[in-house]
């Protein structure tokens, strides 16, 4: 999976941030010189195109208090845009920007004993989960 910067529409290829046009140019140059090793470039281009197709610009101008603003700026090193983006990412969870990745919704189950909602832990299966309300312990067998 390539690293993609949605803000300027670039993809990280061999430690260089390239636009779709630049990646295309590199592929064309390789083809022209008979170098057929451009599978990595082609993959990066495809991933960039897919990510940009799914990208959305938020048209909002949230007004927050001075204290909230100062707190935000103390948490994130960068401009306002970077701050807001980091806040959103922290809120919704990390996604790579590519479709189908990072869109996992939080899953819940009901406690068998008291019917309380328990968040399903990510990661290893099988695992034990404990109800935060009644402390009943259950065993998660496999991924749902
Ligand atoms: Zn319970």
Detailed description of the structure:
This protein has three domains: 50 residues, no CATH class; 48 residues; 33 residues. It is α+β, with helices and mostly antiparallel strands and 144 residues long. A hairpin with a 6-residue loop joins strand 6 and strand 7. The protein is built from four helices and seven strands. About 5% of the residues have low confidence. Strands 1-2-3 form a three-stranded antiparallel β-sheet. Helices cover 35% and strands 17% of the residues. The relative contact order is 0.10.
What's the quick description here?
The chain has helices spanning about 20-30, 40-55, 65-75, 80-90, and strands at about 5, 10-15, 15-20, 110, 115-120, 125-130, 135-140. With about 140 residues, it is of the alpha+beta class. A hairpin with a 2-residue loop joins strand 2 and strand 3 (about 15-20).
Q: Taking all residues together, what is the mean pLDDT?
A: 85
Strand order of the largest sheet: 1-2-3
- Low-confidence parts lasting 5 or more residues at pLDDT below 50? 97-103
Structural class: alpha+beta
- General form: flat
Fraction of residues in β-strands: 15-25%
Counting H and I runs of at least 4 residues, what is the number of helices?
4
The beta-strand count equals: 7
Report the end-to-end length measured between terminal Cα atoms.
25 Å
Sheet bearing the most strands, described? 3 strands, antiparallel
Helical residue percent band: 25-40%
**Ligands:** zinc ion
Q: What pattern of helices and strands is seen along the backbone?
A: EEEHHHHEEEE
